[in-house]
Amino acid sequence: xxxxxxxxxxxxxxxxxxxxxxxxxxxxxxxxxxxxxxxxxxxxxxxxxxxxxxxxxxxxxxxxxxxxxxxxxxxxxxxxxxxxxxxxxxxxxxxxxxxxxxxxxxxxxxxxxxxxxxxxxxxxxxxxxxxxxxxxxxxxxxxxxxxxxxxxxxxxxxxxxxxxxxxxxxxxxxxxxxxxxxxxxxxxxxxxxxxxxxxxxxxxxxxxxxxxxxxxxxxxxxxxxxxxxxxxxxxxxxxxxxxxxxxxxxxxxxxxxxxxxxxxxxxxxxxxxxxxxxxxxxxxxxxxxxxxxxxxxxxxxxxxxxxxxxxxxxxxxxxxxxxxxxxxxxxxxxxx
Length: 336
Description:
Blueprint: H1 6-13, H2 17-25, H3 32-45, H4 51-58, E1 63-68, H5 74-87, E2 93-98, H6 103-115, E3 120-124, H7 130-137, E4 142-145, E5 155-159, H8 161-174, E6 180-183, H9 190-205, E7 215-216, H10 222-234, E8 241-244, H11 247-259, E9 269-274, E10 287-290, H12 293-308, E11 316-318, E12 321-323, H13 330-335
Parallel strand pairs: 1-2, 1-3, 3-4, 4-5, 5-11, 6-7, 6-8, 8-9, 9-10
Antiparallel strand pairs: 10-12
């Protein structure tokens, strides 16, 4: 098939090549009738613009690099879906790279994205420091999503993890629980640290002593939830509730409790964090601190485009909201 050129479009549209070029670039006003004729010719001929050539001419690639974590993770993927939806129709396309969990992998992935000459960068979660991000991205517009900026002048779009954990733990305390176990997230992850601090702060404010036997290390996976409950049972420590660092961990904990004949919530109450879509359909439905993942992705897309255009954008810290369901509220079970 013959490659369609600007000259072909100009011939079919009955205009000059310079007029076609102005329409394609979209930077100079063109007579509406001529512009309409050019678009009709493009559609008729099936013309596909050379993105590389356009980027070289304009100095922009019309792409945004997205460094995400653990592709396949429901939470991170929901943010990514929000980004994809919001970029639709803007002329910009996201390019994704998976940083996994290790800082070295995140640094390499970020360098790869920058090497693609992207116009801006979105970093979703991760453990790479803000300073390292700034050093790699240099002058590029950057937005952090689902994490707070811990250094430098980067902008961020995140939720108050400390407050969310405080609300979740306080909910369990208000339901009469005094021995509340916590399954933590990754040891070097900022969100995990903040959620642990919120848990400890709620206990302190209620006058309860901190019992390290009730705290188990995790890694945000369902497997770590299973292992954590097994460890708690082996420690022979009494507990009536669990606050899990995220919903996946809570799913695993729920399975492990069933294996030792513990009912939820009659014997053990559970609260998670993230409020993934699936949490409404577990048995019983899981109480969880909501992070509006898809909405965060949609709003982040608009924010990075504003930064690319040189418009101001202030960091956003969302207030968490606890979605109370049957896993932590026995009265809801009785009402069914």
